[in-house]
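User: Hi! I'm a student and our assignment asks us to look at how structure tokens line up with a sequence. Could you show me two examples?

Assistant: Happy to help. In each example below, the sequence comes first and the structure tokens follow. Example one:
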Amino acid sequence: MGESSLESPQELFERLQARIEAERARLAGWQAIEADYQRKYTQDLRPLEEKLNSLRYKLVLCFDHAYKNMGLSKAERQFVSELVTEFSEELLGLGAKSDLPAGCDAARLKTLYKKHGGSDYDADVAEDTEEAKAYLAEALELDAGELGAYTPIQLLQLISDQFEDEEAEELLEEARQALRPAVTNEAAWQALQDAERERLAESARDPALQTAVAAEGLSGDALDKANAVLARQLDEVLAQASHAEEGFKLRYDLDPFASFDPETVIEELDADIVDIQEYIRELEHEVMQFSDESLLKAWLKAMRREVASIERREGRG
């Protein structure tokens, strides 16, 4: 625990007590929302995500069919190829986590990725990962080999401490690429539980964690000893709260490079559900249209204008 040199022992005592209380409340918050979040995630979000990704897969196949059979111009075919490559890449990213819905053929997606993008998906991922590691290591003044020693939440803290806003978000995106999970979330959650059991067993032997600290009336050496005990107790509750959040992110496939609050995470889930429902309606409409050549061409024209407009705005920014 970092301590301010201007802080008196009594002020430190009060701050530690307040922080412990706040972190215990945060830990209790994660435990309190679990059942409600799990129900909404399982019954509402997951079926929608599977439906959405199945539609995206159909869209990839529609675009590939249009590329070959709908008399598109050279510019239109190029744009369609970009869409096929982008959508295939996104879906294959789900496949890496064993999260592709039934009926989505990863091998076919890789074939379409190569056909329309001109390169091998696995080779591109490996190259992008190495480049991201090098970029991130240089920005954080680390050796590339050191990155593996950091957890996502530690990298999030490191980046947040050193960078702001757009620069921080850019580095977090590089971190997501550099530290792509090598195992499924289920396996990672099991490993996290095993590590936490070992940590708790060790903590159980720490006398400081079994010591009750008087709420008031301390001074001198007694106050200093109480502060040392409280600092250790704060470290423990911080570790437990971190475990609760990291486990939550693994169980519910949340961004490992983001921080979440138990007081708002259900609201965010509700918003995600609404967004996905809207996106599904849009994709269902688009998939129905794409059997008509004139409607497809009109859609491609509108999309190309929108992409060009976004690129111009980003260029001005």
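Example two works the same way, sequence first and then tokens:
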Amino acid sequence: MMWFGLIMVALIAAVMVLLRRHHDAGDDHEAPPREQQSEARQEVIERVKGMHTAAEGLHGRARVKALRNYMDSMSDDLEPVSEIRAPGSGPPRGEWVIAPEAEPERRILYIHGGSWVAGSPKSHRAITDRLSQLAHACVFAVDYRLMPENRYLDGVIDCRQAYRWLLENGPDGEATADFLVVAGDSAGGSHALGLLAWIRDQGLQAPTAAIALSPSTELMVTSLGKRANLKSDVMLGPTVKKLARIPSPLLWWGTVLGMRVLPTNPIASPLRGKLHGLPPTLIHVSESEILLENAQRYAEKARAAGSPVELETWPDMVHVWHLFTPLLPEAEEAFEHIGEFLSRVEAGSA
């Protein structure tokens, strides 16, 4: 087995060298001409660029720490309507976000994004605060374990544990949920969609509904260079352009070794799983982002399997534009659509 280990070390080293070269060469964060953008959109794009520059020149743990700090700082100026409450000692880790009119028996499990290496309940309070208000539900934002210090599957396990716990526990202690939604964005959207299939296969009580915002549905990395929207996606585009230049075998094995899961595994690529028997699900995705095509494929496959999945697209929005509420009018519009979707689900018409 020594030869195999040596090959893996060589592959990782090659990937890291290539990534560093591409980083040093620089990549412009391309965006539509400023005259075509509103002031709010311009500010959002600048914030997204800041996410890339925050870790510029850093490597390893220092780079990860800088990215995490920047994402958490996105909520520093937020004045949430909701109460932020810790769940107490013991698992699952996370925080409750409770709007004034939220009912304890109405709950939402929220799984934040951040490429599985960054993000936290704090970084996504703009979203969880709005969800609690519009659904009159107590949102539990799970603080799942992140890479690289943990395995990808550790985060999956944390989300599963949180769902089981929420079925029987609310913000005030043990109590059965009579309304429970699974929601997430980006990488957290992938965890959310994967969780739905696991809940079905385990025979657990199904969630009332699910919401996935700009979700990752497919982890296959061999076709990055063929994906559209590389230029228009100001958040994911710069990173994906670098990855697309790496030879496919190196990228494949780098992904396997880094995430310790095969990209074809439905746990990491929900699109590759069985999509029958899922709850009513709403997917939001921008027409300008890289994840558009795979989100469309997921919705089409799920509907073909008989699952009630709705897909709504927005033009010229950044990845997970919902984070920029109330600054971005389109973010507020998206939350209105989420509220309408949940109302239809409860009325039995979704």
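Here is something you could point out in your write-up. Residues 314 and 343 are 21 Å apart (CA to CA).
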